[in-house]
Amino acid sequence: MAFTLYSLIQAAILCVNAVAVLHEERFLSKIGWGVDQSVGGFGDEPGVKVQLMNLVRSVRTVMRVPLIAVNSVCIVLLLLFG
Amino acid sequence: MDYNATQSGFRQRKLQPNMRQRNSSMEGPDGSQLFEDTSGAGPRTQSGYRNQQTEPQQAGFAGQSLLSDPMSNLAMAYGSSLASQGKEMVDKNLDRFIPISKLKYYFAVDTVYVGKKLGLLVFPYMHNNWEVSYQQDTPVAPRFDVNAPDLYIPAMSFITYVLVAGVALGTQNRFSPELLGVQASSALVWLIMEVLAVLLSLYLVTVNTDLTTIDLLAFSGYKYVGMIVGLVAGLLFGRPAYYLSLLWCCAAIFVFTIRTLRLKLLSEAAAEGKLVRGTRNQLRMYLTMSIAAAQPIFMYWLTYHLIR
């Protein structure tokens, strides 16, 4: 119960790392979550699965480089302060 | 005492040594009287008065000698312009991250609104019209519409919750000042996680709504009122009173949240109570119900460890 803001930040970093390591060809296409399978109908009904796939793809595209920096900072902080 | 205190206080300022040097060179015997400690009460109070009277004059003297120097004049003008530029930049950047002008809307409340809203949070069953009234496409300020969300009540009730939690811990001899910070940050973390979860689910279900993040923050913050009521009842009257009042407040927040969010999230027809088929409306209904059901869970989770 004793949450601090730093533990929230750590949890967020872990979750974003988990999304970032999902490989496009080797994993997502195999389970039907690849980018080529998301072009569904053009109506206004994207559906939950298509939204989720779009979210995964955009997180991976956007957060790859910042995650390097953020992870390095987190590692240094953990080494210094435990 | 007063004289000594002001003297040591003045010594710590940067300009004062320069002023002292110049003034002691200008006023010989008077300057020495200002600097040495006097033991008698009479001379001390007199020199104390003189200190306070002549200090402005010394400041005037030193200020004149500073300002008459053109280089320092230029430096002061440059410094002040730099400070105002820095302030402008900070304001502009801060406005980019935290929309200050939008925040002002949420704090435009008055006592009548707060009273009505608190009553609505505890007893929402008699209220009939839950729609937010608009005025030329912008929502009316909370002062004029009791259904509009505001941030005053959530902010105040959050702080009150932390204080009441401190009181509750104190009655059980478990209190220490760090625990206040722990309670505050825990509640804040849960609030942030709840808002993020609601935002994520709103994105996934592709609801076209005009709910902003701050609106969600306001709606999630309304449950602190019920938590405070439960905690105070538990502190005053014991555990059964805590459970009863928490049950009442949970039901009230559940109904309040459903009735408020129904108009914002569901489509027009479904919001009026007609049964509309279709997976999207069903999803939206489930979303509204789960957001409303999460409120009592959080209310219990954040308060049960405070009542023993």
Automatic annotation (TrEMBL), chain A:
Its main location: membrane. The chain crosses the membrane at residues 62-81. GO terms for biological process: endoplasmic reticulum to Golgi vesicle-mediated transport; protein transport. It is found in: Membrane. The keyword Cell membrane does not apply. Keywords: Membrane, Protein transport, Signal, Transmembrane, Transmembrane helix, Transport. Residues 1-18 form the signal peptide. GO terms for cellular component: COPII-coated ER to Golgi transport vesicle; endoplasmic reticulum membrane; Golgi membrane. Belongs to the YOS1 family. Regulator of endoplasmic reticulum secretion that acts as a key determinant of brain size. Required for secretion of extracellular matrix proteins. Required for correct brain development by depositing sufficient extracellular matrix proteins for tissue integrity and the proliferation of neural progenitors. Acts as a regulator of the unfolded protein response (UPR). This is Immediate early response 3-interacting protein 1.
Automatic annotation (TrEMBL), chain B:
It is a multi-pass membrane protein. The keyword Phosphoprotein does not apply. It comes from the Eukaryota. One of its GO terms (biological process) is protein transport. Keywords: Endoplasmic reticulum, Golgi apparatus, Membrane, Protein transport, Transmembrane, Transmembrane helix, Transport. The chain crosses the membrane at residues 151-170, 182-204, 216-236, 242-262, 283-302. Coiled coil: none annotated. Residues 1-10, 44-57 have a biased composition (Polar residues). It is found in: Endoplasmic reticulum membrane; Golgi apparatus membrane. This is Protein YIF1. It comes from Betta splendens.
